[in-house]
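BUG: 3D viewer hangs when loading the predicted structure for this chain

Environment: internal workstation, default settings.
Expected: structure renders.
Actual: progress bar stalls at 90%.

Input used:
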Amino acid sequence: MIFKVLYQEHAQEVPVRERTKAMYVEAEKEREVRKRLADKNINIEYIQVLDEDHLAYEKQSEDFHLENV
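Structure tokens produced before the viewer hung:
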């Protein structure tokens, strides 16, 4: 499955919509995504599973690329 992770770059940063970034991670479960990202020192706001239609939409963006974590 592909997960979309919305996050702030610094773990201590208060979530502000204008500074929220997104990354895409392939994993079996949300827990696995959190485990892989634990050492990155980021503030994870939300992790969303992408269904086929949503994934197709996200792939149209030039910012889309799967992270190797």
